[in-house]
Amino acid sequence: MITHPKPEELTEAVGRWIEQVRPQLDPRNQFLARVAANALAAVTRELTLGDQAQAAAVERLEAILGHGGNYRGLNWELCEKLRAGEMGVATPGLLATLRGNVLDQLAIDQPSYKYEGP
């Protein structure tokens, strides 16, 4: 099995190359190159942080729902319970679970977001 380059190393390299050539482009293509570089950066963060964020979300969801499962199933169940009114803001641990899941996702999607919560 080939272990190098890793996917995140490839996306980082292409992103660096785009940033290197971007100043030489016309304004429209500079903008499009910036969009492409930002997309690659998001993919890189997903590759490096995504598995850990999902594992943490599963732990939080398992704790609040009281049983094991995979992320997709647990998240679906939580949504169904919220829609049905079986869980709400008064449910112990719900807001902390949602906050943790959202902050982990923001670290991937919008890493410059600064949460200044309670």
How many domains would you count in the coordinates?
1
On the 0 to 100 scale, the average pLDDT is 94
Biggest sheet character: none
Low-confidence stretches: none
**What's the SSE pattern?**
HHHH
Q: What is the C-alpha radius of gyration, as a whole number of Å?
A: 19 Å
**Amino- and carboxy-terminal Cα gap:** 47 Å
Number of helices: 4
Tally of DSSP β-strands:
0
**Helicity level, as a percent range?**
over 70%
What is the strand content? under 5%
Written description of the protein model:
This protein is mainly α and 118 residues long. It has one domain. The chain has helices spanning 7-21, 27-65, 71-84, 94-109. The longest helix has 39 residues, at 27-65. It is elongated, with a radius of gyration of 19 Å.
Q: What are the key terms here?
A:
single chain, 4 helices, 118 residues, mainly alpha
Secondary-structure blueprint of this entry?
Layout: H1 7-21, H2 27-65, H3 71-84, H4 94-109
What is this structure, in a nutshell?
The protein is mainly alpha-helical and 118 residues long. The chain has one domain.
